[in-house]
Amino acid sequence: xxxxxxxxxxxxxxxxxxxxxxxxxxxxxxxxxxxxxxxxxxxxxxxxxxxxxxxxxxxxxxxxxxxxxxxxxxxxxxxxxxxxxxxxxxxxxxxxxxxxxxxxxxxxxxxxxxxxxxxxxxxx
Length: 124
Hints:
Helix content: 25-40%
Order of helices and strands: HEEEEEHEHE
Number of helices: 3
Number of strands: 7
Structural class: alpha/beta
Number of domains: 1
Distance between the termini: 15 Å
CATH class: Alpha Beta
């Protein structure tokens, strides 16, 4: 989810956090009020800041989650996912996308466009 959509999809983010807690994830950091904010990364040469939606740990391994919801700026979303996927591969993290009903087709289309078939989708 991009920064412009944070307020619009706050309810979905809270649902995702509770879903992850039920699955046994701990030390959850989320980009929403009431939780510690995950580490942000600044794009060199610009003012664009990339912050994962949710970062959690399970069985000693760090997992990065991003909400995949319809957006008016899919190009920005694609670059965010490519960055987070590369970061997770470099640091041996796990990168997952969380999507909800009504957003599956949008998510699958973007994943196909950027050739990230290895990303696992969590459907809520």
